[in-house]
UniProtKB/TrEMBL annotation:
Organism whose genome encodes this protein: Streptomyces solicathayae
Protein name in UniProt: MarR family transcriptional regulator
SUPFAM superfamilies named among the record's database cross-references: Winged helix' DNA-binding domain
Record has Transcription as a keyword: yes
One Pfam family linked to the record: MarR_2
Keyword annotations of the record: DNA-binding, Transcription, Transcription regulation
Amino acid sequence: MSGMTSNEEDVARFVERFAAELTQAGMQRMASRVFAALLASEAGALTSAELAEQLQISPAAISGAVRYLTQVGMVSRERDPGTRRDRYVLHNGVWYETFTRRDQILTRWEKVLRDGAEILGPDTPAGARTAETAEFFEFLQKEMLATMDRWREHLAAKTRA
């Protein structure tokens, strides 16, 4: 980190620390680092060259990470105004969008699990376990929807204040 200011070093440490948390939670390591760097950037957007310099990784590593982040809807690619370079931009409300998609996944899992519970037989241990798992996902989905509604209310109140 030579040549960096104290604040830049603090930001770099934060980026690596948050990226490690995302990786621990199951996100690909390079995607975690790129996402954390974009989150910590002033504009929520960086070019490939800026990411490569900041994270000390190759353009190929950035390309793979951005491809993953784009596929999961956390980042989009835009043309850098006045240049032929792309820049990578965080989606507004990225956490809301991520949890909303997760909600759709829970709905699909719940349906498959309910079908599985029927196939396994509700009176069997496997069927009962599967049915309880489906019930858990249904519960989680309702709780997440209520939480996201409260989050929107919180943001609206904060904006009005």
